[in-house]
Specification:
This protein is of the alpha+beta class. Strands 2, 6, 7, 10, 11, 14, 15, 16, 17 and 19 form a ten-stranded mixed β-sheet that branches. A three-stranded antiparallel β-sheet has the order 3-4-5, covered by helices on one side. Strands 1-18 form a two-stranded antiparallel ribbon. α2 packs across α4. The longest helix is centred in the C-terminal third of the chain and has 28 residues. The radius of gyration is 21 Å and the shape is globular. The protein starts with a strand and ends with a strand. The structure holds adenosine-5'-diphosphate (ADP) and magnesium ion. Adenosine-5'-diphosphate binds next to α3.
Length: 361
């Protein structure tokens, strides 16, 4: 089966600073279209982009237009879960400049759960319902949580160990994986919630001790669900496994804007390396899909840790969703334009998803 990457764009409300500056609003949305107006005093024409979903989350008082956390989940999360139950891998990644709403969309805020908690919560509801319906099926759910910082992989579920520089390897059948990364068995949503809050704490602590903000690292939360079904007549057990990768990317803003120098520069260029390579991979795949280049053309997955880990989620064996988050403010015009363009390229990628099924595991 071949499917395009699903691309959504979400615009957040104006923040305090933008409100105080009385900045102009340059984003509007209608249906599946996003409009980017020229900022104040600039003679540029309006640009129009089309995506699979445009989530207008600027003002909850505008009930007709507003996209809540729940609505975003209903459009993106359910699909991913249905795919997982059918044995397909799935991936959602959030892309955008720092402060544009990536973590709000993926994790959420107090009382405003984002995609990750909603997906995990609904996953266990669906498992209960499936077990109720068919007692011969059993489910196993394992999670892992890692941070990619400066091209190094850290285990967020085992922060005290020496797991600060894990290596990515490739298995012929299972694809790329992180060697030594903890995979913890979970029995319900509460288990995941506890693990995640521990993991997030260690993300922040590590960030301060390394003199950096979490905006410079990529966080990858993975859920692996294995369904086993025993056939009473033959006594054989069939297994289906699906991996859901939920990725909160580092801020997409260019290093030039952050006064990078010295170590910061190295750090910045390494972070850029993962994001730049992600862009190159997306472009290469988009060219393949549109027939501009041959299928056999080189895709530089191995050039960064992030793209190597996400290999199966990009043009590979996965259903993939990208959420591009943007600010509505005129003074973020350039970053917003570059995010919208990046998202536009991602629309053209085709994935070839196959069921991870071993009928006689
Ligand atoms: P990022 O992870 O991209 O750096 P955050 O998700 O931390 O950005 O968002 C920055 C700030 O804006 C946070 O205070 C967050 O709660 C708020 N915010 C982001 N998106 C939304 C939204 N859709 N609705 C309400 N508040 C939002
Ligand atoms: Mg964030």
């Amino acid at each position: 089966m071949s499917t395009k990457v699903k691309v959504a764009v979400r615009v957040r409300p104006l923040n305090k600073r933008e409100l105080e500056m009385a900045t102009d609003i340059v984003i509007d949305m209608k249906g599946a279209q996003t409009f980017l107006k020229a900022p104040k005093n600039e003679k540029k024409s309006q640009r129009t982009f089309a995506y699979d979903h445009c989530f207008w989350s600027m003002d909850p008082n505008n009930k007709e237009k507003f996209s809540s956390q729940e609505y975003v989940f209903s459009c993106l999360g359910n699909d991913v879960l249905d795919n997982a139950f059918n044995g397909y891998n799935a991936c959602i990644f959030a892309y955008g400049q720092t402060g544009s709403g990536k973590s709000y969309t993926m994790m959420g805020a107090p009382g405003q759960k984002g995609l990750i908690p909603r997906i995990c919560d609904t996953l266990f509801d669906k498992i209960s319902a499936a077990v109720e319906k068919d007692k011969s099926t059993t489910f196993k759910v394992e999670v892992s949580y890692m941070e990619i910082y400066n091209e190094k992989v850290r285990d967020l579920l085992c922060p005290k160990s020496d797991k600060h520089n894990l290596k990515v390897r490739e298995h012929k059948i299972l694809g790329t994986y992180v060697d030594g990364l903890s995979k913890l068995l979970v029995h319900g949503y509460n288990d995941i919630e506890n693990l995640m809050s521990e993991g997030n704490k260690s993300r922040t602590i590590a960030a301060t001790s390394m003199n950096a903000e979490s905006s410079r690292s990529h966080a990858v939360f993975s859920v692996v669900m294995t369904q086993s079904q025993s056939d009473e007549a033959t006594g054989l057990v069939g297994e289906k496994a699906a991996k859901i990768s939920l990725v909160d990317l580092a801020g997409s803003e260019r290093a030039s804007k952050t006064n990078a120098s010295g170590d910061r520069l190295k750090e910045g260029s390494n972070i850029n390396k993962s994001l730049t390579t992600l862009g190159l991979v997306i472009s290469a795949l988009a060219d393949q899909a549109s027939g501009k280049s041959k299928k056999s053309n080189f895709v530089p997955y191995r050039d960064s840790v992030l793209t190597w880990i996400l290999k199966d989620n990009l043009g590979g064996n996965s259903k993939t969703v990208m959420v591009a988050t943007i600010s509505p403010a005129g003074d973020n015009y350039e970053e917003t334009l570059s995010t919208l363009r990046y998202a536009d390229r991602a629309k053209r990628i085709e994935n070839h998803a196959v069921i991870n099924e071993d009928p006689n595991a």
